## 1
Amino acid sequence: MMTQEHVPVLIVGAGAAGLTLSLLLRQQGISSVLVERRPDVSWYPRARNLNFRTLEVFRGLGLEAEVIAAGSPVSRVFRKDTLASPQREEFPAVEQALHIMDHPETLTPEPPIWYCPQSRLEPLLRASVKQRGGDVRYHTELVSFTQDSQGVTATIRDRTTGTSSVLHADYLAACDGAHSRIREALSVKAEGLGVLDEYYLFVYFRAEWRDLIRGYEADAILIDRPGIRGFFLITDADRGMFLIQYAPSQGESAWDYTAERCKELVEKGIGKPELAVEILGIEHWQPMQLVAEHFQQRRVVLVGDAAHTMPPKLGLGANTAIQSAQNLAWKLAAVIGGQAAQELLSTYQTERHPVGLLASQQSLVGPAAALLTRGSDDDLLPAEKQVPLFSLIAGYRYRSQAVLSEDAVPSSPEGIELLAQPEDLIGQPGTRVPHLWLERGGQRISTLDLLDGRFVLLTGTGGTAWRDAAAAVAEHLGIALAAYRIGAGADLLDLENGWQAKMGMSAEGAMLVRPDGFVAWRTDTSPPNPEPKLRQVMSSILCQRQQA
């Protein structure tokens, strides 16, 4: 007889989305079991760059310093005849394409882009999950599942021992990748171009190339000369990947690239005949552009590539996945904890589907990929339809039941409300809270440092009534709600002397920020007794309208 256990959330897939979701749920006090088919974390140097919004997620988890230490400034792209060749050509256009603004320090406390590939990020996240008491089980697969109004019953199997067990979960989070078996089992349709007409080979190899890659550890190196064309991506001092594009339209096939031929290409690309090369694996790959029509089906939610799959040309895949996990985690926690109605989970679809769809569409072209494709993918997204990178990372505005705003919803050809430039990010409900330098207890902090998994209410120096109301509402609704007054002699000192302008608030007003760092509501007025108003606002955001 199989053993049975209960867990609030079963997460399937320990990539960036699954590991981050586990940590975010843990921060909210929600336990999870995370299962992964692979025997260990990935050592492949994919999903290479993290953008500032993702670093802000890790900042809220207390992991930002570790992620920064594990990485380095944004990777560069060079072209060389061989890796050993001293001559090189840098492609500044790639870095320029990733440029967000001239003074990013006014937008975020984080670097705009930071190199920390999957091979470094996954081990770091796994270690953190375990250190915080999380339950992560590698070499364990989901065999089957059923769901009803009470939850999900799943059978999982330890692939090492062959032992099966049954888990009862309140919710199942499918973080099982682009070819999600869970999405397929749910018969959830997907929209998009599907598998693109681009063909690549990932050639994983071992070589003692330490001396050749010194100074290039974070970079991509294009080897381009007659008879060989591909990118070297570096894992560590003795492992790497050679990315090759081939063209079936010209009679080429993946079968043409045997282990012997791939070894020969890697050796030629390195350009040092005496260096021994061992081929560790060859993987055929085609990029996909697909977005699930629905991110939730009753007790099952799709996260990351299972929800929105995109080519890596703008480096948005893992970043969008992690940010979607942040959007979902606090909502799952509130529903499971009884503070919110199940309707709150529907805002995950409302808010993240347009973002995932736009990111996937915009990722059809990109500066680094263009070096390999030679412009063959330009027709996939005409220049006039491309939007600024800032808009894709943080320049969008949610409109859902989890946001209260009196502004009219403008029509948009992209189906999503976008902000064109960072200066437009001024605390509108539904946008990421502005970054502002403050001082607390003699220490300089960002407004983003106030986000530790709780709701946050920000007011001016005269906001004592708001602060008292927050304490009463938190107790009444059973939620975690912190309140801070900003200004001279208050809880937080405004180091920039401009918090009202940057937050779009009056001195008497208040701003409510959700656990994911997005503004839920703001007001310019302060009623004599703000508790009823704040209770109404919180109840509405949590979809508990009967408590208003």
Note: The CA atoms of residues 46 and 516 lie 26 Å apart.
## 2
Amino acid sequence: MAADPSPSSETPVQATPASGGASAPSPGAAAAGRRRATAGRAAPERSRGERVTLGWDVARRLVAAGEGLAMAGALGLALVELHGARAHALAADEVVAGVRLGGQDVGGLSVEALREAAEALGRKALDRPLTLAAGPAEVQTSARALGADPVAEASVRGALAVGRSGDPWLDLRDRVAAARGEVDLPIGYRLVDGPALDELLALAPRVDRPSLPTRLDLERRKVLPASSGTALLAYDSLSAIAVGLAEGAERIDLVVQDKPPVEDPLAGMADALDVSVVLGSFDTPYAMTDTDRNHNLKVGSHAVDGHVLQPGELFSLNAVVGPRSAEAGYRYATGIEAGELVDTMGGGICQVSSTLFGAAFFAGLDVVRARPHSRPSSYVDMGLDSTVVYPDVDLKLRNPFDFPVVLHMTVSQGKVRAEVLGPRRPYQVAFERELVEVRPYQTLWRHDPQLRSGSEAVAQRGMRGFKVKRIRKLYQGGQVVRSEDWELSYPSTTEIVRRGTNPTGPLPDKPKAPPLRDPASALRIVQ
């Protein structure tokens, strides 16, 4: 290596002219003389700053050119110039040219000017938009809102350290990168956990999702797959925020953890389920003023709703709905018992059974067991009803198809609705009913000590009994492919009349009842 080309060590070399009469020099000697003459000329005096600039400029040009080994000699000459320039640069208290801090050029600034710039940039950066992302949930915030304080000294130290590592090659690389505008340092921050933690805890409910099993969205006719839940780990996310602020990130991904799966009863059959088609449906009305009976309708329908019936599987309403008890959520309400209207636990469950029976009838499910009521019901046509009494009187159906079906029931706005859902509808179904016989009712008198002697009041209105024939015809392509029929009997309802025995008792009210009507001699409904 050449000696440090400082002013004290530079010695000009003078050229010595040839004496007269000497022989002419050879070509080689002449060339050598020219080289000595050139080397002997005194180089122009440069300032230390000029030598620094020249040295780094030569180095940058050589690195950018990348001429390989062919430039090795020229690089050696540049390093001679850089040897002194580097010593000066390491000792300087100015930022290397081209260095940026938070997007702003701070190259050439003194320490004090750099500190002022870092403080101003830090205050400005506190309010820049910042996005916290936790899966699909995002929140817009700022470093100030998260409790961050800019640390000017950290930014000053980082800017001054560029190109001053002590390693010549690393310093050369960093200075060239700075000159190209490739060195942009983030603003340093100090994070106070409190505000950031509050922001995370406020975001957590938007991220928190329970793990869900396979489920049926029967209103939209879809099977929804199982999904894993998520939870935001607030305390772990504090570290992510600290790192993101230190790096000057505009978006920080928080720490979100998947929750373990839950028990999934439908997992094994999810691929085979298809609820896109209504095979059969049926509606029955109810009075919205009878709150206890309507409550029972909802409890019973909820138990049936979503029940999956596999090919060949038998359905029992009593087994699915269970005992009608207060523990199961039922209340006392009006029902039919032994041909009389009485308050009974779970009153109204027969309407659930009858509505489901109607849907199953029109869907083409096999009717294994179904008993009509002991008296015609006001909410359903004779022949389409099915009474149940736990545990002895039951509604039983079987799925005859080679695919599973799903039962869907709703109770809303004065209507109980049942549907049988599956991938396709094999049949068009017709219900036919023929009136075979009409039977008169009997009258029963009961003494009432509260009513005035000789007065009468109807406690239960009598209704005639009927014998009907129910027929189901299944069509494919407009042709009957199967026909079934049942003979059903509806006993007459005894009329009960209260007869007064109290000489001074009140007279009863006598509301006018509408006349009794017999059912139509024939009825046909097609779905």
Note: The CA atoms of residues 452 and 505 lie 4 Å apart.
## 3
Amino acid sequence: MSSDQKENGIGHDAGDSAQQDGVNTRRRSLIKAGVGTWAMPAGLVTLLSACGGDDDDDDAAPGPGGGDGGTEPPPAAKLLSSFGLVVLPDTQFYARYATAETGNQFAKLFGSEPFIAQTNWIAQSAKALNVPFVIHVGDVVDQVSKPQQWEVADAAMKRLEDAGVPYSILAGNHDVLQDIGYESDPVNGTDATRDPAAEPYLKWFGKDRASAQPTFGGRDASGFHEYHVFETEGQKFLVLSLSWRVSDAGLAWARQVLQTHSSLPAILVNHQLLAIANDGVSPLEVDYGLMLWDKLIRGSDQIFMTVNGHHHGAAHLTKINDFGHAVEEMVVDYQMAYQGGNGLLRFYEFDLSNNRIVASSFSPWVPLKPKSAVNEFDQAVLTDANNQFVIEMDFAKRFAAFNPDFKAGPGTRAGSITDAALALALNGYTDAQPPEKAAPANDEDYAHAVGTLAHWRFAGGAAGASVAQGAVIADKSGNNNVLTRAPLNAPAGNTAQEGDLVWSADRHRLSAAPGSITFRNTAGPRLSYFLTDAAAALNTETFTSGYTVEAFIKIAGDWTAAANAWMNIMTRAGRRGDLPGWAASLPQSPPLQFAISNLREVQWEVVPSVATPVSARTNWSGEILVDTWLHVAVVNDPATRETTMYVEGAPVLRNAVDGAGLATLNLPWTVGAGYWDGGGPSGGFLGALGEIRIVGRPLPPAEWLTARAP
């Protein structure tokens, strides 16, 4: 889910430390070795395993027991009964930013696209990894009414079809015309309220297409929900895939499917079920997931595992159903990671011989990028406990109540499918090491940029002291574009106190500024902010030569979407609908808005001074952390008419094209608040600001505030 549409437990967490240490050790050895024996044919792997590989000790002294003086060969490795299952998390940004409408961002930067890279890797690797089935968790596209995005998704999923790899798919909230969340309206917005003939999802991924899959079992009357049965290792498994906002009729259909296939272990797939807490780690149950638990999961012993997307990140929760058996719930959604997910997918190895499920998360796309385009933000393998873990599961015991004959098949594999998958995906790739970045030696140890129009350092008072009403923040550029703290009672109804702004010695480690200002107690009408003077030269600047805006920001740890969504870092006052030639949507917004969305994305939404038509252009970051200093840079290049946002030096995916400069209504700049429909300041900032610099040209990273003085 993305902010463009502005959407509004029991058990334990995943993995134990011993299992995680084993997974991490294996991952380190694989990356060090690149493609090892697992890229070879299975027979050769077994041979090398038995022989011990290439040994440098050719002249070692003979040991006892061998007829030719050699040692006894080690016993052959145990052959395993196991298979792999691939999950494609939300692909919405892969579809959106691989289109001509958005500037073909992936192909332009990397020469390839993540969505089709994922499915191409699966198609090429499925046989070697014994992958009988693939699961898509929904949000296939980002904007349901954009045919180009559906074309990208169509081509990517067709790669699986052409290779004969069956898959399930479902509609996420971005794939339906009416996106209504359960939390805001538990009655309306289900499949029962949709017109199937009008829904693009059913046009592109309808029943006829699904029925071509050899595993396809059927769809419900709405056409949105489907089930599959795949067979592997001598056993059959049911995959029940429910689209966004299943109705009561859809749930009744799902229960009937389970009853009809009452002996099959079932994996339930939804777009939404389990979420992630604000710490980015802990599993969080939400109302929709609890409804599914009560109405479907807890009373259906066949459902031993659930997978969903929608909520950004990854988490795992074990719950106990009405039969006293474990149900493993997992959420996986990487869309807010670097490059919209960077091609990361989830791989499950079902090791039936050793009674465990091994989860891993890696990207087959990152190793395909040109070496010159890879940076320290490209992580091909995620190794934290929510992305690599082991679930111990005695399959025969867990399934005994409904399938007493379940057992592992005859062993056919000599080793871990997970290791094999990692080796095939990495293909010798190793992650780039982050460059060393020196901390400033003093307050002036930063790159002083020619063309700086304003440079505000929010420092100067004693740490812990209040920032006085009317306090002035000097303009270090020398252009006298100073900032002044606004009156506490402005606008009318503001309940701000002087102590809501406090001087602090805290700062980003790469900022040369000696401190920052903390914005406290911001909620509703209570806000504190700064303004440029009405006659400041900066107010009339249109930046026709481009610009670079930098800010060191830190979102407060007690930030919540309910109280602080769409809070503003900096804006230009006024109503953009008053700009000459404006004919686009949301005329009430200001001409420049540097803000934090309801999903904790950094939003840079501006009206360029050189643009056709006169409309807004928007950059979005991924979901950012709270209580963490971040450097944000926004660079507009008039030569390319492109605007790129960087967070901690990493270019974001969702950048703006076809615009240069910044339109103005000749009104003041505001730091710490925003505007709506020409009214007074609102949407106050909660957190800390270190410094903000505005330069009238595009700057390379070597000239940013994070760089040291030459």
Note: The longest strand covers residues 547-555.
## 4
Amino acid sequence: MATHGMQDSEGSGTILLSGATGYVGGRLLSLLQEQGYRVRCLARRPEALKDRVAPTTEVVRGDVFDPGSLLAAFEGIDTAYYLVHSMGDDRDFESQDRLAAANFASAATSAGVRRLVYLGGLGNPGEQLSKHLRSRQETGDILRSHHSSVIEFRASIVIGSGSLSFEMIRALVERLPIMICPRWVQVKAQPIAIEDLLAYLLAALRLPDPASRIFEIGGPDQVSYGEIMREYARQRGLRRWMIKVPLLTPYLSSLWLGLVTPLYARIGRKLVESLRNPTLVSDSLAGSVFAVRPRSLREAIARALVNEDREFAETRWSDALSSAGKARSWGGARFGSRLVDSRTRTVSVPPERAFDPIRRIGGKTGWYYANWLWSLRGFLDLLAGGVGIRRGRRDPETLHVGEPLDFWRVEAFEAPKRLRLRAEMKLPGRAWLEFEVEPAEDGSVIRQTAVFDPLGLTGLAYWYLIYPLHELVFGGMLNGIANAGEAANGTPSTHQSTLRRKTAVLIGFIAVCFAAAGMGAAATSTSVGGWYQALTKPSWSPPDWLFGPVWTALYFMMAIAGWLVWKKVGWARAKWPLSLFGLQLVLNAGWSVLFFGLRSPGMALLEIIFLWIAIAATTLAFRRKSGLAALLFAPYLAWTSFAVVLNFAMWKLNQ
């Protein structure tokens, strides 16, 4: 682990930090401020740092591509950190890196800066390095050619919540139970924990030797990306299968990573190109110069997960998310591995009145909307071996941290500002529900935030499948809380009728879909017991018991999809997609009439082709209105595609 004492700042002047908005730079800034250093941040957009620095920290405007803007920034500087690179730039990033490094080092030399500290990348320069790694090492050479004292640290993968490599690994493991692994997954690296990397960067301030030095740093483990993914999966309790494939170009790998991880394709391509090179420590000089003892890979990953929990627990959603209520993507936003659904409502009452319904939530008071659904959820939890909703709450008026509240537990309580609940029901992951109240010009703003930390693919499927229900229940709960607060103040509410209308329309869509299902079932019942059983079926035909559960789920998803499109754009703007929706329902019921009612697999085959076209057209039309609606239609389209093949096979076998 990292061991270093408090910095003795004697003889050290102001520190210039470039790249403070980045992953490493932002964490280094916090440590420098905590240890009492005088810090000046160089930023192209100082406003981006305004709310992240201590009152004693300066933020100056400057651009490493504009030498004139750097002169004032270096005045009075003792040591400058260079944590800049152009990996995300669409242009020729190598030439950009050369120019930026030369400008920075030249300005530092002109201003009499004692030392530069730079973070580069590991890799054997005798091998054919990727453009990215080659540029990182070339940047160190350029800094040394323009300044006499440069401390360069060369590191491999950085393990920490938020780092590019770690987030790529996390996303792959969390989202893919079966991974197709190209050759670069087996290349060796020597990962380092973010805390240990920062310890090295801080220790560079205390080096007495003025000479330029290169230090190769890394943890004690030399492992492949595949081994890192397996260790992450082990600590998260996930079982993952990895299938090795010999061919997958960096371009294809980057597109693949862009689909399943948070990486942009252009960044992913540069990263994947670098992964073909082993990044191992070949020089142990750092171990003899610095009192830093890096953590093992197992400790680094465990530490990253613990730190993420701590950072999450300290997060105030009123700060982390726009209080103006920015439009959310379907399924919510992301915070690390967590999925977040946050919404606000402004009420015309003071914070104390707005918070009253929140502190009374649960127990006999209920959850302000669809209490029967909450009771059903509690009953299902009880059946699954969970705590259920039977615990209620200790007191109807007051709450204390640590006490149970139905199937939640109070994690934070600051009346009249904040209530955070941690879920204790059975879930494929972890969940929190938080309420915040802040004063506003005309009353108060209530923010309600649901957070889910999914456990693997099962957790992700759970979140997205029930997200339409969340839209209804969480929206209704927030409106119920707001209405209760305003009602206590004698203010009439205008939201209840809208909520009732949404509920009524959802019930209508469900009724229409299952009416079509009922018509098909009536036709099916005429032949399924005799004629259908006598038909010759292909060996791969599913068992008869499977069709009922599958079609029930598909009809329910159809209904939710149609409702989401209506909810998003209204009847007037949804005429065409909802007309296609109705057409495919008619064709859906008609297929059962032809196949089972008229006992004509040939006519049913012709009809199911038209049904498939109608479903595909509906999916495309829905996609233009609601991404989630189109996603909910995708299983229906896939099942019908299989049904076309099955219908054709049965027609051929029984001619």
Note: Residues 14-310 form a domain with the Rossmann fold fold (CATH 3.40.50.720).
